[in-house]
């Protein structure tokens, strides 16, 4: 997992509430392997019409694809528990999602894959979106260590994050990698335990 420290980049604003995981990645595309990539299917049914042509009015079709931050409305990532929704966002190029609230399972899946979820209280979210439009959706900075979101020339907003998630994202490690940091201790415990409980594995 790639470490997340400081992120500077542009934003895509999709201020809609209750964007669910089936909108993020329709179920019919979930038979793909992780290595084959999901980015091309992000918001597929909203990005393309029935004949496969782009829908010009849809927000992602108005951008150049270099934006790193998606800004959305309440309850982002609600719905089913499909982890592929996170894969689709990451593979498209997003590294962070800013919203007033998130679906619990989505937020958990995001943290395990290096996608930062930034929750903002309603008042701060409104202020941030207003400033975002004034900045032409550019020059946004997220500092995970300081837990701040802001712009180069204006005020910053603080956000909350679980300390354990923050530590792992800063280091770029997942749950397995964190466990392996204690491999020597685990092996030492196992050796001593089996020496005292030899009856577990009789010869």
Structural notes for this entry:
- 34% of the residues lie in helices and 16% in strands.
- 25% of the residues are buried.
- The protein is globular, with a radius of gyration of 20 Å.
- The chain has helices at 21-24, 44-47, 84-92, 104-113, 122-134, 163-171, 175-180, 183-196, and strands at 6-9, 11-14, 69-72, 96-99, 116-119, 140-143, 148-151, 154-158.
- A 4-stranded antiparallel beta sheet has the order 1-6-7-8, with helices on one face. A 4-stranded parallel beta sheet has the order 2-3-4-5.
- The chain folds into 2 domains: 6-172, Aconitase, domain 4 (Alpha-Beta Barrel), CATH 3.20.19; 174-203, no CATH class.
- The mean pLDDT is 90.
- The longest helix has 14 residues, at 183-196.
- It has 203 residues and is α/β, with parallel strands linked by helices.
pLDDT average, as an integer?
A: 90
Shape: globular
CATH class of the largest domain reads Alpha Beta
How many individual helices? Answer: 8
Oligomeric state as shown: single chain
Radius of gyration: 20 Å
The topology string of helices and strands comes to: EEHHEHEHEHEEEHHH
- What is the total domain count? 2
Could you please say which CATH topology of the largest domain applies here? Aconitase, domain 4
Biggest β-sheet: count, sense, barrel? Answer: 4 strands, antiparallel
Q: Could you list the spans in which at least 5 consecutive residues all have pLDDT below 50?
A: none
Strand content: 15-25%
Query: CATH superfamily of the largest domain, called what?
Result: Aconitase, domain 4
């Amino acid at each position: 997992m790639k470490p997340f420290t400081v992120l500077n980049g542009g934003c895509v604003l999709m201020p809609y509430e209750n964007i669910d995981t089936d909108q993020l990645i329709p179920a019919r595309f979930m038979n793909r392997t992780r290595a084959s990539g999901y980015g091309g299917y992000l918001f597929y049914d909203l990005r393309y019409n029935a004949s496969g042509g782009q829908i010009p009015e849809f927000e992602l079709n108005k951008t150049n694809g270099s934006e790193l931050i998606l800004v959305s409305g309440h309850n982002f990532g609600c719905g089913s528990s499909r982890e592929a929704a996170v894969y689709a966002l990451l593979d498209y190029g997003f590294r962070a999602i800013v919203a007033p609230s998130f679906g619990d399972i989505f937020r958990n899946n995001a943290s395990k894959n290096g996608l930062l979820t930034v929750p903002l209280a309603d008042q701060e979210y409104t202020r941030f979106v207003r400033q975002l439009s004034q900045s032409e959706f550019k020059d946004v900075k997220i500092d995970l260590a300081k837990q701040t979101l802001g712009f180069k020339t204006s005020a910053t907003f603080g956000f909350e994050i679980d300390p354990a998630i923050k530590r792992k994202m800063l280091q770029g490690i997942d749950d397995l990698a964190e466990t392996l940091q204690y491999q020597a201790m685990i092996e030492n415990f196992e050796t001593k335990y089996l020496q005292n409980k030899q009856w577990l594995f009789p010869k």
